[in-house]
Specification:
seven-stranded mixed sheet, alpha/beta, globular, disordered C terminus, 24 strands
C-alpha cells in the first residue's frame, strides 16, 4: 500500500517520548502560554490499574501494554545468556513500571559530569537546587530536600524482621546506619525512600503531565511511533510518526523552534540513527543517508548489573510463605484495601545499603556497591516465589568500566535495536563482582542474622575462588534497568560526544536530546530521579534560549489539543 503523509500541524516544540523526561519537559515548556507544545508517546495512557499499585510492576514488566519487550544480545560476561531489558512504553515511561526508589547518586558523579563537559552548572552544588525544586519530600523542605514540588517522596509503609536483621548485620560488618541516601554521600544502610503518595505509585505522568493537560497550548498524542526526524539541510524541522493501530499513513509534526528527543537510552539513539545521525559507515550499510556523522551515537552504554544472592532462613516469616496460602493472600489484599500498606505497597526492594566493594583497595574512595534487599526469593524474575522462607540481597557495581552499545540493524523504525551491554567485560568489573559476592557473605555471616540460620541457595557456597566467583556472577547477574550514556554529553572536540553541555545535538540545529542517554557516566544509584533533574535543567535552558531569541514564538497559542489515542 502506498503510504500517505498527512501534516499533523506546526508547533514550537515537538517532544518525542512521554517518559520521565518528556513529561517534565511538556509541563515546563507549556507554562509559557505563547508557545505550542506537542508531546508524542509510542505507548498508551497510564490508566492500567497495575501501574498504580506498587507491587503491580510484576504485571507491567514483560507486558506489551506497558513495556517495549526488549532483549539484549547474548552476553559473554553472563555465560552466553540474554536478558529481558524492560523499558516503559506508556505515559510516564519507565517511571510507570520501575522500582519507585528515590535516589540522586553521589556528589562526585555530578562533579565528574561538570569536568567532562567543561560546565560547572552540572556540578552537585549546581544541580542540588534543581532536585529540590522538583521534590515534595515527606519531611518537608530543608538543606537537602524540597517541599511543594511535583515529585512526591515518601517513606515505605512496611517493615520485615528479616530486613531489620540484615540492617543490623550490615552495621556489624562495618556499614554505618543512615536515614537519608540523598545528601551527596549515600554510604550506609537504611530503608529506601520511594516515589509514592499514600501507598500508590507516583509516576512522572501524575506528577508533571496531568496538571498541565488543561492547557490549550499543550497537545498530547499517544500511540505515536516516531519514524524519523525531518531535516532541511542541517536544521531539524520536524518529525514523522505513525499511529499504532492505524494504517500505514505517516504524519508530520513540524517544529518552528526545536525537536526534543526524550525517548530514553534505547530509543533516542535508535531514532537518531534512523534519521541519519550516527556513524556514517554504519548508516551507509543500512541505506540511510547521513545527515551528521557522529560516531558516539549508540555507544557508551552503561548499566548496573545486579548480582542476586538468596538465602534460606528459618524462624522468621518472609513473603515467600506469607503469599503461599489463601489466608495470606487475603490478609495482604485487606491490608492494601484498608490502609494502602503491607506487601502490595512494596517497592521491589525495601532495604538498601551502599559500601565499598573492597576495604583494602585504596583506589576505591567512595561506595561503589549498592544493595537491594528483599524479603523474598525466586529462581528468576517472573517465576513463582520459593515455597520456603528466604531473602535476597542483590549487589550492583555502581560505576562499571564496561561499555556496551545500542544500534539499529534495520531502517525499519518498528524493528528493535541491537542491545549489547557488554557486562563484566573488564578485569576491574570482574574483580568488583567477586568482591561484592564476598562482601555479601560477610554481612550474612554477622551475628545479627545467625538466629535465622541463613543458608546460601543462590549462587551457592561451592563458588569460592576468584575465577569461580566471576563465573557465579555471570550466572546470577541481571540488569537492574538503569541504561544510560548512549547519546552522551561532551565538549566540541570530543569524538564520542553526541550533545553539548546544553544538550544540543552536535553539528545540527533545532535538535536536543534530553533523557538518561546524555549522562557521560552513570550515577551511583538508581537513575530515574537524575533523569528528571536533567529534564528540569533542559527546560530552563530551552526557555532561556527562546527568551534570547534562539527559538521563534507561536502566533497561535490557543490551538486545540490533539486527542490522545
Amino acid at each position: 500500500m502506498q503510504r500517505e503523509t498527512i501534516a499533523a500541524g506546526e508547533f514550537d516544540y515537538v517532544i518525542v517520548g512521554a517518559g520521565t523526561a518528556g513529561c517534565v519537559l511538556a509541563a515546563r515548556l507549556s507554562e509559557d502560554r505563547d508557545v505550542r507544545v506537542l508531546l508524542l508517546e509510542a505507548g498508551g495512557k497510564d490508566d492500567y490499574h497495575w501501574i498504580h499499585v506498587p507491587v503491580g510492576y510484576l504485571y507491567c514488566i514483560g507486558n506489551p501494554r506497558t513495556d517495549w519487550l526488549y532483549r539484549t544480545s547474548a552476553e559473554a560476561g553472563l555465560n552466553g545468556r540474554t536478558l529481558s531489558y524492560p523499558r516503559g512504553r506508556v505515559l510516564g515511561g519507565s517511571s510507570s513500571i520501575n522500582g519507585m526508589i528515590y535516589m540522586r547518586g553521589q556528589r562526585e558523579d555530578y562533579d565528574e559530569w561538570a569536568r567532562v563537559v567543561g560546565d560547572p552548572s552540572w556540578s552537585w552544588d549546581a544541580v542540588l537546587p534543581i532536585f529540590k525544586r522538583s521534590e515534595d519530600h515527606h519531611g518537608g523542605g530543608n538543606e537537602w530536600h524540597g517541599a511543594g514540588g511535583g515529585w512526591r517522596v515518601e517513606q515505605q509503609r512496611l517493615k520485615w524482621k528479616v530486613l531489620e536483621a540484615f540492617r543490623e548485620a550490615a552495621q556489624q560488618a562495618g556499614i554505618p546506619p543512615t536515614d537519608d541516601f540523598n545528601r551527596g554521600d549515600n554510604t550506609g544502610v537504611g530503608y529506601f525512600e520511594v516515589n509514592q503518595k499514600h501507598g500508590v505509585r507516583w509516576n512522572a505522568s501524575k506528577a508533571f503531565l496531568r496538571p498541565a493537560l488543561a492547557r490549550r497550548n499543550l497537545s498530547v498524542v499517544t500511540g505515536a511511533l516516531a519514524s524519523r526526524l525531518v531535516f532541511e539541510g542541517k536544521r531539524c524541522v520536524g518529525l514523522v510518526y505513525q499511529r499504532n493501530g492505524h494504517d500505514a499513513r505517516e504524519f508530520v509534526a513540524r517544529a518552528r523552534g526545536e525537536v526534543i528527543v526524550a525517548a530514553g537510552a534505547v530509543n533516542s539513539p535508535q531514532l537518531l540513527e534512523l534519521s541519519g545521525i550516527g556513524n556514517g559507515a554504519r548508516l551507509q550499510r543500512l541505506g540511510i543517508e547521513t545527515v551528521q556523522d557522529l560516531r558516539g551515537v549508540g555507544e557508551n552504554l552503561q548499566d548496573h548489573l545486579q548480582l542476586r544472592m538468596a538465602y534460606r532462613v528459618t524462624g522468621v516469616r518472609t513473603l515467600n510463605t506469607l503469599s503461599a496460602h489463601w489466608w495470606g493472600k487475603l490478609w495482604i489484599g485487606a491490608q492494601y484495601a484498608f490502609s494502602r500498606s503491607g506487601p502490595m505497597s512494596m517497592s521491589p526492594s525495601q532495604l538498601g545499603a551502599f559500601a565499598k566493594s573492597s576495604a583494602d583497595d585504596r583506589s576505591i574512595t567512595r561506595a561503589d556497591i549498592e544493595y537491594h534487599v528483599q524479603p523474598l526469593s525466586l529462581d528468576r524474575f517472573g517465576e513463582p516465589l520459593h515455597r520456603f522462607d528466604a531473602f535476597t540481597a542483590s549487589a550492583c557495581h555502581l560505576r562499571p568500566t564496561s561499555r556496551g552499545s545500542i544500534h539499529i540493524e534495520s531502517p525499519d523504525s518498528k524493528a528493535p535495536p541491537l542491545i549489547a551491554p557488554n557486562y563484566l567485560s573488564t578485569d576491574y568489573d570482574r574483580r568488583a563482582a567477586a568482591n561484592a559476592l564476598r562482601l555479601t557473605r560477610r554481612i550474612v555471616a554477622s551475628p545479627a542474622l545467625a538466629r535465622y540460620a541463613p543458608q546460601e541457595i543462590l549462587p551457592g557456597v561451592e563458588f569460592q575462588t576468584e575465577e569461580e566467583l566471576v563465573k557465579a556472577a555471570g550466572a546470577v547477574g541481571t540488569t537492574i534497568f538503569h541504561p544510560v550514556g548512549t547519546c552522551r554529553m561532551g565538549v566540541a572536540n570530543d569524538p564520542g560526544a553526541v550533545v553539548d553541555a546544553r544538550l544540543r545535538v552536535m553539528g545540527v540545529t533545532g535538535l536536543r536530546v534530553v533523557d538518561a542517554s546524555v549522562m557521560p557516566t552513570i550515577t551511583s544509584g538508581n537513575t530515574n530521579s537524575p533523569t528528571l533533574m536533567i529534564a528540569e535543567r533542559a527546560s530552563d535552558m530551552i526557555r532561556a534560549d527562546r527568551r534570547a531569541g534562539a527559538v521563534g514564538a507561536s502566533a497561535s497559542p490557543d490551538a486545540a489539543t490533539v486527542a490522545a489515542a
